[in-house]
Design goal:
By secondary structure, the protein is α+β, with helices and mostly antiparallel strands. It is built from four helices and two strands. A two-stranded antiparallel ribbon has the order 1-2. The longest helix has 13 residues.
Length: 67
Amino acid sequence: MTITNAATKPTIIPDVIIGIQSFLDKNYSTDISLDLLAKTFSISQYHMAREFKRYLGKSPIDYLIDV
């Protein structure tokens, strides 16, 4: 997925971030924690949370609340 902004170059979102977003969209009604996401996607909790916010503008938990 590519996000385009007139003031910047297009940004390519890594597949793992898209996968996490998709997982949250599909499983929002279940009990999801950063630990579960990190284990499911084989990524550090802290790195995942930082990169998710970098590309989507909010933390995974804030995204989940919005969904």
